[in-house]
Every structure is written in structure tokens, then in C-alpha cells.
């Protein structure tokens, strides 16, 4: 089983309308709701690929209950720690008339210390039943800045493998616990190094530095440019074919799902990386984050160029 942890759950709502006019009354044509947060996106893709998955994290108020209902409808098992504050609602306003997209993102709840302790216990329990635990996304207010580091330790004790996809301080603080796999994108890597631009060679050097810290697998995702893998299994560059994308939000999450699936199924590193890239591509062709078409995955895998660098 794979467990995904979403500490800052979201009810992702999309409003469709013809034109969005600031300062005016706007009538909505259609509303769509998705269970959201990066770990949830990863779980949706893993489930579509046919893997047994469970989601966990903090859930609060009506938005939390709504997310649980949406997960039930998709038959995705969940076990959350209930908190008092309301989980976030993230609103995406899609105006098809002028093609404009406006996002309104709530900050999310504050988590109290006692609830953090409860979550750590739950993660230990779930990790004991899992091969992999995926830690994704930002931290809600109130949890320690090294929250992911603490969870990686717990996951290690439970003899599962931790996969980390986050940014900024929570990323930096967790590295010393040596997660099994990390998947920074280019801005996340630049942020870690405190740089504003990186050449390909510099990206490879940076990933090698991460490897030197004891992280066995580093996969850098580069959007339309594909991915670089620097790890125990060598160095690879992957290039996807040109795509007419709909929405790339969540492509990184889909990639994390594909990589986790590949490692769990003991695929070769080449196949694992291609599965990750193919899932990211398929996500980019869909409007909602964490949605892929499994029938596309095979044909995409055949179209991805993979080159062994060393
Ligand atoms: N425009 C695109 N064309 C082809 N493949 C893409 C495109 N955008 C993303 N992908 C695929 O998805 C993978 C992950 O995308 P990206 O690097 O944008 O992740 P990310 O920034 O972490 O995304 P998010 O955090 O929103 O999930 C890429 O490595 C690539 O394989
Ligand atoms: Mg990402």
C-alpha cells in the first residue's frame, strides 16, 4: 500500500463563466469540485494506475467533510486527524469568453500542537502498513517547520520509504533525514541554492550535492523540458514530445505518483522514470489536477526520449 499525506487539505472549486468582470455581479454557468492538496492529487493518480492507496493528513470543518465525501465518491480510502479550524477552499475562476483564469487561495487552518502529536502517531500506524509514504505540499500554520523531517524519521522506524515533494524551509529542514526520493522542480531547486538561474550542468551538480547528503534518488522535474534523474541508479535525461497542454498544475504530483508506482513495482529505473514523465504529461492534458488517462500512458512512454548521461 502507498499512503499519501496532505497536511494542508483543500477543497478545489472551479467556477466556469463566460466573462469574469471585476467589481461586477458575475453569474456562474457551472461549478466543479475536486478533493485537493498535493497528496490527494498523488493518490488520485496512483488509484487510476491501479495501486492500493490511502490518504491522510488534517481535515477541518465543512470543507474537510466535503473533501472526505468527494474521496468516498472516488472510492479513495482516507484517515484524517480532525481539527477545529476549517480546511481551505481554493477557488479557480475560469472565464471561457476571454480565456482568463483567476485563482483565489485561502491560507488554511492553524493546527494545534496536540493534533500534530496525533498525526505523528497515525502516520506511524499507516507507515507500518505501507511500502511507501508520500509527503507532499506546504505546511499549515502551527506545525513545526521540520514537520517532514520528523515524519521521515517515523516512516523509517516503521520500515517504509518516504518520498518528499515540498519547497522552501520545510524542504531544506527535511533533507538531513534522507528521504528515499525527492522531486524538486526548477524554482524549488533554485530556491534551495539561493540562485535565480541554473544551467543544466549546475542543476546536475546541485542534484549530486543532494545525493551526497544521502538521498538515494533525486528527480528534477523541468516542465515541458522533461526531467533529470541523478541517483544511485545513474544519471538520466528525459524529454517528452511537444504537447498541447490544458493545465499543468498537478503534473509534478502526477509524476511523483508514477515514480512511486515504478519503485513499488520494481520496474527498471528507465521504465520508472518514463512512467513518471508520462503521468506528468497526461495530467497536463486534463483540466483538473491529479487526473490522468491510463490509456495514454503506454503510448506516451514510447514517445519519451531517454538518454543515459552516466
Ligand atoms: N508542458 C508540458 N509538456 C510535456 N510534459 C510536461 C509539461 N508540463 C509538465 N510536464 C510533465 O510533468 C512533469 C512535472 O511537471 P513540472 O515540472 O511542471 O512539475 P511541478 O512544477 O512540480 O508541478 P506541480 O507542483 O504543479 O504538480 C514534467 O517533468 C514533465 O514530464
Ligand atoms: Mg510540484
TrEMBL record:
EC main group: transferase
Catalytic activity: D-tagatofuranose 6-phosphate + ATP = D-tagatofuranose 1,6-bisphosphate + ADP + H(+); beta-D-fructose 1-phosphate + ATP = beta-D-fructose 1,6-bisphosphate + ADP + H(+)
InterPro entries per record: 1-PFruKinase, Carboh/pur_kinase_PfkB_CS, PfkB_dom, Ribokinase-like, Tagatose/fructose_Pkinase
Record-level Gene Ontology MF annotations: 1-phosphofructokinase activity; ATP binding; tagatose-6-phosphate kinase activity
Protein's pathway: Carbohydrate metabolism; D-tagatose 6-phosphate degradation; D-glyceraldehyde 3-phosphate and glycerone phosphate from D-tagatose 6-phosphate: step 1/2
Alphabetical keyword list: ATP-binding, Kinase, Lactose metabolism, Nucleotide-binding, Transferase
TM stretches of this protein: none
GO biological process: carbohydrate catabolic process; D-tagatose 6-phosphate catabolic process; lactose metabolic process; small molecule metabolic process
Pfam family, one: PfkB
Domain annotation Carbohydrate kinase PfkB: ranges: 10-285
Taxonomic superkingdom: Bacteria
A GO term from the CC aspect: cytosol
UniProt EC number: 2.7.1.144
PROSITE patterns documented for this protein: PFKB_KINASES_1, PFKB_KINASES_2
The protein's role, per its UniProt record: Catalyzes the ATP-dependent phosphorylation of fructose-l-phosphate to fructose-l,6-bisphosphate.
NCBIfam families: 1-PFK, pfkB
Family the entry assigns: Belongs to the carbohydrate kinase PfkB family. LacC subfamily. Belongs to the carbohydrate kinase pfkB family.
Protein name listed in UniProt: Tagatose-6-phosphate kinase
UniProt source species: Alkalihalobacillus alcalophilus ATCC 27647 = CGMCC 1.3604
Amino acid at each position: 500500500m502507498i499512503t499519501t499525506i496532505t497536511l494542508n487539505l483543500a477543497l478545489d472549486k472551479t467556477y466556469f463563466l463566460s466573462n469574469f468582470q471585476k467589481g461586477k455581479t458575475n453569474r456562474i454557468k457551472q461549478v466543479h469540485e475536486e478533493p485537493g492538496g498535493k497528496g490527494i492529487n498523488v493518490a488520485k493518480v496512483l488509484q487510476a494506475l491501479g495501486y492500493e492507496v490511502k490518504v491522510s493528513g488534517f481535515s477541518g470543518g465543512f470543507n474537510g467533510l466535503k473533501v472526505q465525501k468527494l474521496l468516498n465518491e472516488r472510492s479513495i480510502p482516507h484517515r484524517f486527524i480532525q481539527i477545529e479550524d476549517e480546511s481551505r477552499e481554493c477557488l479557480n475562476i475560469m472565464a471561457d469568453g476571454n480565456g482568463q483564469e483567476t485563482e483565489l487561495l485561502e491560507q488554511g487552518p492553524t493546527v494545534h500542537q496536540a493534533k500534530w502529536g496525533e498525526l505523528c502517531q497515525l502516520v506511524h500506524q499507516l507507515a507500518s502498513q505501507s511500502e511507501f509514504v508520500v509527503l507532499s505540499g506546504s505546511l499549515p500554520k502551527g506545525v513545526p517547520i521540520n514537520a517532514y523531517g520528523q515524519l521521515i524519521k517515523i516512516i523509517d522506524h516503521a520500515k517504509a520509504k518516504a518520498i518528499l515533494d515540498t519547497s522552501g524551509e520545510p524542504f531544506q529542514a527535511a533533507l538531513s533525514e534522507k528521504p528515499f526520493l525527492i522531486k524538486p522542480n526548477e524554482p524549488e531547486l533554485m530556491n534551495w541554492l539561493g540562485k535565480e538561474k541554473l544551467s543544466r550542468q549546475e542543476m546536475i551538480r546541485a542534484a549530486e550535492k543532494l545525493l551526497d547528503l544521502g538521498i538515494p534518488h533525486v528527480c528534477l522535474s523541468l516542465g515541458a523540458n522533461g526531467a533529470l534523474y541523478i541517483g544511485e541508479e545513474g544519471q538520466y535525461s528525459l524529454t517528452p514530445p511537444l504537447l498541447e497542454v490544458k493545465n499543468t498544475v498537478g503534473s509534478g504530483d502526477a509524476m511523483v505518483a508514477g515514480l512511486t508506482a515504478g519503485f513499488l513495482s520494481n520496474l527498471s529505473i528507465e521504465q520508472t522514470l518514463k512512467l513518471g514523465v508520462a503521468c506528468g504529461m497526461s495530467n497536463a492534458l486534463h483540466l483538473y489536477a491529479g487526473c490522468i488517462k491510463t490509456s495514454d500512458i503506454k503510448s506516451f512512454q514510447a514517445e519519451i526520449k531517454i538518454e543515459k548521461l552516466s
